[in-house]
Amino acid sequence: MTDRTLRAIGELLDATRPPGSFAARHTASAENLALEVEGVGAVRWPVPPDQARRLCEIARPARYGRREQTLLDPTVRDTWEIPRDRVTIDRERWHATVTPVLDAIREDLGIPPGRALSAEFHSMLIYETGQFFRRHQDSEKADGMIGTLVVTLPSTFTGGDLVIEHRGQRVIDTGSPDELTFVAFYPDCEHEVLPVIAGHRISLTFNLVVVAHASNTDSSNPTVAGLAEQLREHFATPVPVPSWMRGDGPESRPPRLLVHLLDHRYSQRGLGWDQLKGVDSARAAALVTAAAEADCAIALALADIRESYPCDEFEDEDWMCGMRRRWARVDGTWKVVGQDWDAIEGEDEPFEEAPGESPTAADHPELFGSLGQEQMSWSYTTLTWWIDRSGDPAVQTALSITDDELCPGGGEPVVHPYAFESKGFMGNEGNTMDRWYRRAAIVVWARQQPIELPAMSTADSGAH
Fold this sequence. Notes:
Elements: H1 2-14, E1 23-28, E2 35-37, E3 41-42, H2 49-58, E4 60-61, E5 64-66, E6 69-71, E7 77-78, E8 80-83, E9 87-89, H3 91-108, E10 117-127, E11 132-136, E12 145-152, E13 157-159, E14 162-166, E15 169-173, E16 180-185, E17 190-193, E18 196-199, E19 201-210, H4 222-234, E20 239-240, H5 243-246, E21 252-253, E22 258-261, H6 278-293, E23 296-310, E24 323-330, E25 333-341, E26 378-388, E27 395-401, E28 419-423, E29 432-446, H7 458-461
Antiparallel strand pairs: 1-16, 2-3, 2-9, 4-8, 5-6, 7-11, 8-10, 10-19, 11-17, 12-16, 12-19, 13-18, 14-15, 14-17, 20-21, 22-29, 23-26, 23-29, 24-25, 24-28, 26-27, 28-29
Helix pairs in contact: 1-4, 4-6
């Protein structure tokens, strides 16, 4: 039965947990960091208050990214920034310090030994008294970027803690008055800089980029052998085909796909075989080798997931009759981004005016944070933005999958919805709350049962 093979594959993947964390912290002497800033000169260690103030004077307010936009909003990010073209680092001396630290970071983050990291300088940041950066996630600022590195310079300050969180765990960096502190983390980790109480927190930020390829997992690994065996059995066992997918085809056939959702968050730019993070990288390596042994093809994809829940609470809200509202998170706050009303039983206007974006509104997303799977009416998953094993440029497509094509395992990562839609009574339907998530996935299918994906290479489409 495919249920049994899906569970077995999920258990094998769940057991594939390399050592490593979502963040790493190290310290080093500043003696090899020779740093000059245009308009200020050579930076001294520890950074004296008068020089820190001078850095603020020549800096500009820092912007931040939100999807494709670059925004300036001091209520979200209140920081001074000096762009990289005004900062000079003696690379030869710096290399002696940063190279061993990058090796340690690679190991701490669980990045396979077959990969190497490079740190690409991005900018200099200065936080003075009262300044901060609210909780956020980083975007990939460079091709091949797998993480962020923050190097905080020796200086005296209080407050201004850098706090990184992922799946209920937390790493905190308070800086050092005498040494450089190196903090590296995956960009999908939520992090913030708390307000500085006194002094100046001064940091250099770098993009961590993968510059070497990892080899596949050894095929003699018992996990790989077990995965290959289960994949062969899985794709050889016919299963019933849902009527909506069947058309004029047979009532049963071997499974079309096996889809394993990844733990970390990935954007289109950040999705790639060499950019997989931590446990995702280890599981992908095992599946790549097992798929080859089982004569299966493999790809990466982004997944758009929609879940729908009944909301009887809406029955008591007259203003929701005929109302549909779409919510999206904007700068960490839920905003109504779409609203329409359908006439109900001859009514030509809503019974009551909608309450705007008030946190007490019956359909505010914050009121639905505890919805459980047992309450869900249905879910719908679509795979998009496929990348084949060769790493060829991704293709945009859309393939709907069924729940029995999803492979369990890997636990339940903390994934925040990016949109909600509330729907009041609509006559024959309504009183529902839908929410949308984005995940990434590894997709496996038998080469003997090719799937049609536009522009996929012949090697990974299953064609011969």
